[in-house]
Amino acid sequence: MSTPTNRTELTGKYTLDPAHTRIGFVARHAMVTKVRGSFNEFEGTATLDGEDPSRSSAELTIQAASIDTRNDDRDGHLRSNDFLAMEDYPEITFRTTGIAPTGEDNFDVTGDLTIKGVTQSVTVPFSFEGQATDPFGNVRVGFDGALVINRKDFGITWNAALETGGVLVSDKVTLELEVSAIKTG
Predict the structure, then answer these.
(1) Which SUPFAM superfamilies match (predicted)?
(2) Is 149 among the domain residues?
């Protein structure tokens, strides 16, 4: 992707492209390996201000039931009251409260993350990956970001002790966001 020389080209409204966006996570399992997963159903919008990124904003809504770790039994457990309690809390949301440039193509995006009915302020370091016009004439932008959260901060406390010491599921979970958004206005 090419970075525009004129940042005003970025200004506008955008919608996440679910076919080219990944919202994933990584957690340690049994203290010896990592389990990776993603959420497959989500929608999001952003309003970008290329000249003053601090005036930009974004919203994201994830369907908790769309969790996918490529293991049906594990996914069922993650949807249960032990973890996401998706019947009572079907959505995970993020809404920006502030954006601060940290470099030419880097930004700290702060917002309210709500999981299982608990809202915490988090800051996601994002990098701008570029802007391009796809073969269908859509103007696209790309951003990558990741942050580590403590799942217990969101009321997700279930765990099991291991005979060898330690626990089955790590408290720390890395959230990964690889975003492709299409300009809509």
Answers:
(1) YceI-like
(2) yes
Q: Please write the tens of the pLDDT for every residue from 166-178.
A: 666 788 999 999 9
Residue in 61, 71, 120 with CA at minimum distance from that of residue 91? 61
Q: Are strands 33-39 and 91-103 parallel, antiparallel or unpaired?
A: unpaired
Region of 5 on the Ramachandran plot (φ > 0 left; ψ -120 to 50 alpha; else beta): alpha
Residue 2 and residue 175 in contact, taking contact as beta carbons nearer than 8 Å: no
Query: Looking at the 3D structure of the chain, how many domains does it have?
Result: 1
132-155 b/e with 16+ CB inside 10 Å = b? Answer: eeeeeeebbbbbebbbebebeebe
pLDDT in tens, 44-84: 999 999 899 999 999 999 999 999 999 999 899 899 988 89
- Tell me the CATH number at 157: 2.40.128.110
Task: Report how far Cα 25 is from the mean position of its chain's Cα atoms.
Answer: 8
62 within some domain: yes
d(Cα 131, Cα 110) in Å, to the nearest integer?
A: 22
Cβ atoms of residues 89 and 80 within 8 Å: no
Q: Supply the pLDDT for residue 30.
A: 62
